[in-house]
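Task card 7
Instruction: Convert sequence to structure tokens.
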Amino acid sequence: MSTPIIRVAFHTMGCKTNFSETSIISSEMQRYGYEKVSYKDEADIYVLNTCSVTENADKEARKLIRKARRLNPFAKIAVIGCYAQLQPEQISKIPGVDLVLGASEKFNLLSHLNSLNGTNESKIITSTIKNISSFQPSFTNGERTRSYLKIQDGCNYNCSFCTIPLARGKSRSDTIENTVKIAQNIADSGAKEIVLTGINIGDFGSEKDESFLQLIMTLDNLKGIERFRISSIEPNLLSDEIISFCADSNKFVPHFHIPLQSGSDSILKSMKRRYNTDLYKSRVEYIKELIPDCCIGVDVIVGYPGEGEEHFEQTKAFIESIDISYLHVFSYSQRKDTLAASLNNQVTKEHKDYRSKALHILSNKKQTEFYNQYINTIRPVLVEQSINGKIQGFTDNYIKVNIDKHLSCQNTIISVLLNDNKGSYMQGEIT
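Output:
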């Protein structure tokens, strides 16, 4: 008599680092015979990899736990990730949760699932975050044409609004040697693009007398990968040397994502950010000087405590003054055990909503201006999928492209004439 196949469903919230970690955990369970299914399906085990950057993320996690229970009231539900590390007791009280794993234990999910004794009590396994020193490499595998490779974890910065150091611990990295080996394995699997991810990737190697610059210089010689993309990197760690190297590289694409958070120096100081607007502007200007076609994405927070209308207008004016391509806009959310949560002059939801809407409008304007520069130009597009008779992919400088043609060319790079700006994407034709 054959052993019944156990179905496991995963859902990942938050950053690309979380996605890379879920992929590794999922791959391990599939190697042991588990069948991966959609989180929308009836499964025997539901695994939720959580984020806790905002209060809304916590609410969404609780909603997803309830959804899993509705799909199968008898399933085991395991919660991992940042929310699990920060609020394990709160999660354990949600009906249906069997297992809550903190930052150091999520990669031991399988063994912890096997140790469940069938009682109705939730099992919580967490560690004191300051004691976590090991690094677990991870990458997305077989899910997309690009792979997200985690090269660094944790953060030594203590920005006043952020829970990440509390959820992930101190900064730590893989070695260059091991990172290159993993990248080569990704290349051998057929992926064409690797996105370097982490919590504070510019800090890579600081504890090992290695550096992010040394890493990307080494990866630039890797055979089999046609594109490397750098995920979010702090402006104070994005050195002139990194920018100039990427400008001369044939593999590192013209795309940076640089968190700003505020265009007001007084708010940046209150946030305990490690730069001011002058430094930020100089980074953008140097990028555009060396890489004129570079796409620059920006994170910004509205409604930080003490942000008055004049501070917001400073932020808006600053963003308008610099040559960036799009915004990721976040409304400030009070987070337990952060300095910002105790500050006076909390901003009302009404003001947050207004400011968020204003910056979303500005983001659309910036993206339109960026896209319009490339009408009637030819760019290399990595084809990610072919759906409903259309090819979809991204240029090297992160322009989303649709092509009205059915071709079996997924995971290939093709030359495309960009001929129309459709707002959220550009229409193109194969040259």
